[in-house]
Amino acid sequence: MSVISTPAAALPSALPAEPGRDRVHLLPQTRQLRALHTVVRDRDARREDFVRYARRIIRLLLEHALDQLPFEEHQVRTPVGESYPGLRFTSKLCAVPVIRAGESMEAELRELHPSIRIGKVLIQRDKQTKLPRLFYSHLPSDIAERHVLLLEPMLATGGSANAAIGVLLQAGVLEENIVLVDFLAAPEGIRAVHAIHPLVQIVTSSIEERLNEHAFMIPGIGDFGDRYFGTPDAGAVR
């Protein structure tokens, strides 16, 4: 299985050479991707533009995530009577969006894989303890037999992602069968995930510079869920 399609130099130096680095898959940083990011990062972007261009990036992310799954050779006969040495998935697949922002990726994934099983988890930060808390989980009964795409657009501190991964592990999913799909990822979040779950693969369209003192990603995108679904707080910075 190929590990990453961009040169190693494309990964920020903030990610040290440590276990787990080879499981970080950064989308090729093309000019087209940079142009898409320019729209979605603009605080003055109209919501319809934000959604349209975010969906294009999400589609690229999901295609890249699916490429991390195991394949086997599968030969088919073409309409002109020739054989084609193709590939097919070797494992059963499931997607688990982290409610609510992760659901932005669900519709795009269904376009790519209409029959995919979907689970759900709801994790929110406790206002008093500041720790992630599981509020809801509903997963396919056979999820332990599946590879799982864990859909979580923002990987900042890694707390929510680790909590969601923990839910999957308790359900019997193998750590090496989890692909965490993030729209953006902070170096701190990547390190936090791989410090506990080094076998989890991470696919992202951008590795940010850092977190600020409020744990917001820099340069960032704002609250992805609020901007995508059109429900920003009255005083929130977009």
UniProtKB/TrEMBL annotation:
InterPro entries named in the record: PRTase-like (IPR029057), PRTase_dom (IPR000836)
Named cofactor requirement(s): Mg(2+)
Molecular functions (GO terms): GTP binding; uracil phosphoribosyltransferase activity
Highest rank taxon of the organism: Bacteria
Keywords recorded for this protein, A-Z: Allosteric enzyme, Glycosyltransferase, GTP-binding, Nucleotide-binding, Transferase
Pathway(s) of this molecule: Pyrimidine metabolism; UMP biosynthesis via salvage pathway; UMP from uracil: step 1/1
TM region positions: none
Catalytic class of the enzyme: transferase
SUPFAM superfamilies attached to this UniProt entry: PRTase-like
Family annotation (Pfam families): UPRTase
Domain Phosphoribosyltransferase: 28-231
EC number: 2.4.2.9
Protein family (similarity comment): Belongs to the UPRTase family.
NCBIfam families listed in its UniProt record: PRK00129.1
Protein name per Swiss-Prot or TrEMBL: uracil phosphoribosyltransferase
Lineage, opening ranks: Bacteria, Bacillati, Actinomycetota, Actinomycetes, Kitasatosporales
